[in-house]
Amino acid sequence: MAPTPKDYDNIYKRLQAPISKVYDCGKKCAPYNNGEPVCCTTGHAIPIVEHSEYKLLKSRTDMWSPFKPKSAADRAEIADLKGSDCRAVECKGARHCERDNRSMACRTFPFFPYFSPDGEMVGLATYWSFEGQCWVISNLTIVEQPFIDDMMASHDLLFAADEDWRKTYRSQSATMRGVYSRKGKRFPVIGRDGKYFWVLPKSGGKMIPAKKAELMELRSGFPNFGE
How many domains does the chain contain in total? Predict the structure, then answer.
């Protein structure tokens, strides 16, 4: 059973902390994405919400509306949603954002809960397809503990409402391991306690500690890497 609007209301209440109180990632990102943060324009990322979450959002604000495909690529991206529990939506843009009425996708981007091969939710990983576009992915050391805590707690609420979501993120984690193993590259994970780890390629998901200095080297992959 999908989470109810009430479930999403509870999730929103537990998912309040910003990624960082020091840095505004949207302002860092926007100059390199036509003036809009990459996560705030459907040209880069189309928000997907469950019908029940959309029902909650519509009861709170007029900021959201159904997404209208503008190209064949758009139509292909959302084709699998037909007949599902989810739908594509769009907001009025970053300049009109109501922070209390952001979707779960907005509040969590670019992170998802990372699961080890044995099924433990060990921390946070990022959606790798946005590397080079999302400033945060190149600046993981700015992520603060309250955000990590909120991510863990809010997803526990999500999984309690619908266990299928846990399966979704376990699958996402496995896919990420496969992608990076094929590349022969390691990828970073932020642990529950804010410590950093590398997941090694072709290792069965083995994790080793990562140094903050190593994570800071990722900034060279984004044009606006300076602090």
Answer: 1
Pair of tokens at residue 150 = 């909120």
Residue range(s) defining the domain that contains residue 96: 5-221
At residue 36, the 3 state secondary structure works out as coil
Q: Give helix 51-60 / helix 5-14 axis angle, nearest 10°.
A: 70
Give tens-digit pLDDT for 58-72: 999 999 999 999 899
Q: Please indicate, yes or no, if residue 226 is contained in any of the structural domains.
A: no
Peptide bond into 223 cis (omega under 30): no
Locate 105 and state its tokens.
């996708």
The answer to whether residue 227 is domain-embedded is: no
Q: Model pTM greater than 0.85?
A: yes
* Range list of β-strands (E), 36-186: 48-50, 65-66, 86-90, 111-115, 121-126
Residue 202 covered by a domain: yes
